[in-house]
Write a structure and sequence with these properties.
7-stranded parallel sheet, 6-stranded parallel sheet, Rossmann fold, elongated
Length: about 375
């Protein structure tokens, strides 16, 4: 198959999943064309079946905000026509689904039928999508998609609640990891560089937006380090960075916290961690938690959104209500208190991660593509 993948190229989960999916499809012999305004951060051209098409938006003084959706639609028309694509797979509803619909209509007027699949990832439904000004367009684009997927049962449910006029069947295909990337022999990070006196190493990865509640991470860590010698690594960056730096000074924890900023492949650091903290107000899935579990790192998390579908309470880690930093800290201390308990949770986390290996998820997408192409009218 010749597949066009539209995604955001940034560090967010939707872009990561789209890139890994395209790379895996290419490895199986499919021809994959990425279409975005910048090369996805995790895209490496190690396969002759991978291609990238940049969407270039000109800076016209007439526009305060450049019309990316229109330019993307035109680019999709161009790539479909000249690369002879079989289908489009767009990740994130805004504005990719509506751009794909527009491209489909333009191509139909030229005698070309291109089906498109929309994958919903989270904030396009639970945050941005709640803006009433987007509702009619998102609803229409979802209903006009040839197939729609969501990354969790929780997100599927939220879509029908937030968009009551959506009448399209939504299939759940969960996020995934490539388990081979997390094998210990592939990791070469030195734990002593971050925990020189054998302290326990806690880690948090996010884009530092308010919804991630990174301040709760610091509160949990402060309680844990008072009971068990510990260090904290923060990976990522974003609008809450300044508040976090201020809070660590107030808690006097800055000397025990290392901020590494944005890292393309976090598995090197995850491989030396003892515990992962995910304190988000909501997560459609919790890909960062899954990446940690694939590195044999148990997870202390909230119980919101799709997280309980990934992190199993009392098995791969613990779940707590949003904002309950006291319980999160106590659960963390319970896991870290002795090496036997920690070892059990580490092994359990890895066993849970196996369920989301790409080898199990990729055929679900391939089957979906085949069904869509079979029902497409040419």
């Amino acid at each position: 198959m010749k597949i066009g993948i539209v995604c955001y190229p940034t560090f967010g989960g939707s872009g990561v999943v789209a890139t890994e999916l395209g790379t895996a499809l290419a490895a199986k012999g499919h021809q994959v064309h990425f279409i975005s305004y910048s090369q996805p951060v995790r895209l490496d051209f190690f396969s002759g079946n991978l291609f990238y098409h940049e969407v270039s938006v000109s800076d016209y003084p007439l526009f305060d905000y450049q019309p990316y959706e229109l330019v993307l639609s035109s680019k999709l028309v161009d790539v479909v026509k000249y690369e002879k694509l079989d289908l489009l797979h767009v990740h994130y509803a805004i504005p990719h689904a509506s751009a794909a619909y527009m491209a489909k209509q333009i191509l139909a007027s030229q005698g070309i039928n291109i089906p498109f699949i929309t994958t919903l990832h989270g904030t396009d439904i639970t945050l941005v999508g709640k803006d009433p000004s987007f509702e009619p367009v998102i609803t229409f684009a979802i209903n006009q998609s040839d197939a729609v997927t969501a990354v969790s049962e929780s997100l599927k449910k939220d879509t029908y609640i937030n968009f009551p006029n959506v009448n399209k069947e939504i299939s759940v295909i969960p996020n995934f990891i490539r388990l081979d990337d997390y094998k210990p022999e592939n990791q070469h990070c030195d734990k002593k560089a971050y925990a020189p006196y054998s302290e326990k190493l806690l880690i948090h990865v996010s884009n530092f937006r308010k919804v991630k509640r990174v301040e709760d991470v610091l509160y949990v860590f402060d309680k844990v380090r008072k009971a068990i010698p510990s260090k904290l690594i923060l990976i990522g960056d974003g609008p809450e960075r300044a508040n976090i730096e201020k809070l660590c000074r107030e808690l006097d924890t800055c000397n025990d916290i290392k901020s590494l900023g944005k890292i393309v492949n976090p598995e090197q650091i995850l491989s030396i961690a003892d515990l992962f903290l995910l304190t988000s107000e909501t997560e459609s899935f919790g890909l960062a938690a899954l990446e940690a579990m694939a590195s044999k790192v148990p997870v202390i998390s909230t119980n919101s959104g799709g997280i309980p579908e990934v992190n199993i309470n009392g098995y791969s880690g613990y779940l707590s209500n949003v904002g309950d930093v006291e319980e999160m800290a106590n659960n963390a201390i319970h896991i870290l208190k002795d090496n036997v308990t920690l070892s059990i949770f580490k092994n359990n986390a890895y066993e849970q991660a196996k369920k989301f290996d790409i080898a199990k998820i990729l055929p679900m997408y391939e089957d979906l593509y085949a069904r869509v192409l079979k029902t497409a009218i040419y």
